[in-house]
Structures are given as C-alpha cells and as structure tokens.
Specification:
This protein has helices at 14-33, 38-41, 52-71, 96-103, 132-158, 162-172, and strands at 114-116, 129-131. It is mainly alpha-helical. The longest helix is centred in the C-terminal third of the chain and has 27 residues, at 132-158. The chain is globular. The relative contact order is 0.22. Residues 1-6 and 179-186 have low confidence and may be disordered.
Length: 186
C-alpha cells in the first residue's frame, strides 16, 4: 500500500517527509499499472503516443538520470544525439516487469548537497546548480505529472480507476510500492 498522509511520522525530518511523498507518488503509479499485460502496457489509448509502459520507462530513466547527477556520475553535457529516441516508448522486446525493475532503482540522498546539472541543448549557457532537495522535488513533480497521464491511459484502456485500485489493495493489505501484486503478462 502507498504511503498516505496518516503514515507520515510527525517526528520525521524533512528528508523522511520528502522521501515519503516520492514513495507515495511512485505507489500511485504502481497501482495504475497493476495487473496489466505487456501488450496492454504498450497500447496507445488516447490521441497521444504515450503508453503505460512508456511512462514507466520514462520515469525509471528520469530517476536514474537524476540519481547520476546526485552521485556525480552524470555527463557534463548531454547532446540531442545522446538522448534515447525511444526513451518514452515501450519497444519490442521490453516487458513491463523489466521496466518496473528499472523504475524501482532508488537512493537516499543528502538533501543539502549541491550538484551541478548536466548541460542539455535547452539549458542556459551558464551552469545550473541545485540542491539534492531540489532534485528530489523535481523527481516528485515528474512522477506526479506522468502519473496523471498514466491514469488517463489506464482508464481509456480498461476503465480501471487508480483510486479504486488503491482502496482495493489497501483492503487486502497489498504493498504495491514493493512491486508485489504488480502483474505483467497476465
């Protein structure tokens, strides 16, 4: 079950609160994709080319990219040729299980540390420095933003409602944040 506002420890610090809210948003996305097949994960159900599998893939990439920035292992500059043209698509041979495994990669960063962002083609010419806290908030925003897309795609796919799925999972004690109960290929 995802973290809810009642699960947050009132004595927890900022770091724990931020990690809890990111975990909550990750859990919401996992509820949305729970129980779908690889075929369903690759279907476009709206006028957009977005798919559930593509969104999971994108968010796994987003998390890995930002964790590389935090770890100091990200490239200094990223050109257009360095970007994966299929970064937002579930491609042939990819499975939802594999994409979810990549999505689950996580770290517990030092929030106050400053990191310099890679230079992208759309970046201003001067280097940009963010705190790890800002990076984590950006990752939260990215997951929340695309979870909304996933809700629309899933509802168009089979009528499933993420909030109803969360209530069902809570009633059976499922822990979607761990990946338990997320079925692909069924």
């Amino acid at each position: 079950m995802g973290t809810t506002s009642t699960d947050i420890d009132a004595q927890a610090g900022e770091r724990e609160d931020l990690l809890a809210i990111v975990a909550d948003q990750r859990g919401n996305l996992l509820y949305t994709v729970e129980g779908i097949s690889d075929e369903q994960a690759g279907l476009t159900t709206t006028v957009s080319e977005l798919t559930l599998g593509g969104l999971v893939k994108h968010l796994g990439d987003v998390q890995r990219t930002w964790l590389a920035v935090v770890d100091g292992t990200a490239p200094v500059a990223v050109g257009l040729a360095d970007l994966d043209p299929d970064g937002n698509r579930m491609t042939e041979g990819e499975t939802l299980t594999g994409l979810l495994d990549a999505f689950h990669a996580a770290a517990e960063p030092d929030l106050g540390r400053l990191v310099t962002l890679p230079q992208y083609p759309w970046s201003p010419p001067e280097p940009i420095t963010w705190s790890v806290r800002h990076v984590l908030l950006h990752v939260f925003r990215e997951i929340a933003h695309h979870s909304g897309h996933a809700d629309i795609i899933r509802e168009a796919l089979d009528g499933a409602d993420t909030t109803a799925r969360m209530m069902e999972a809570a009633s059976r004690g499922a822990d979607v944040n761990s990946g338990a109960g997320v079925n692909s290929g069924d």
